[in-house]
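Provenance

Sequences were taken from public entries as deposited. Structures were produced by running a predictor on each sequence independently, with no templates supplied. The record for UPF0637 protein MF646_04190 from Halalkalibacter alkaliphilus is shown for reference.
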Amino acid sequence: MSLKGFSQSDFNVFHIDGLEARMEAIQTQIQPKFKALGDILAEELAVLAGNEMYLHIARHARRKVNPPNDTWMAIAHDKRGYKKHPHFQLGLFDDHLFIWFALIYEAPNKKAIAESLMTNSNLIMDLPDEYVISLDHMKKDATSIGDKNESDIIADLERLRDVKKAEFLVGRHLKPNQSIVQDGHALLNLTKETYEQLLPIYQLAMSQS
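Predicted structure for UPF0637 protein MF646_04190:
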């Protein structure tokens, strides 16, 4: 089976002016790759998680004027949606590809999840140093775990607990020119490996959901 990775032209989509033109490029260039990778990853995650997992591809349906600065696919246990649940993501900004475990602001049980993660912060601290943490899925900013100490992680989780709009995402950033990004099978394998390493965090979050 042929799996396509992401080329520089896919990342350049986010430089296209206008909502309609950019969305057409996202739909024709990027979303078929999300579907091919996501169908396999959803099956793999279902085995790991012990329950059905469903692929969701961002539609950006609420956008009426401003074109999206990024796009993604998400995998979650709920067929109807993912935003209210702990979930996994793979997506693109113009300058990097991201692979995340994600808790975004719509999740109703963020407080309980944050407290549980604070008690088990080793699950985050023990991840490879090159893994990164983001506190806002709409921004490019992320900090390497290797540049954080435990008190920094706890502070991030306290913010998740206490601030209504707070988010917490942890995973990998990859540059467009990395060969693994452009090789579909290599990217699939790295994403599976990443999700496996993030699975204990996902399972802990789900236990509080």
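The two ends are 37 Å apart (CA to CA).
The longest helix spans residues 19-49.
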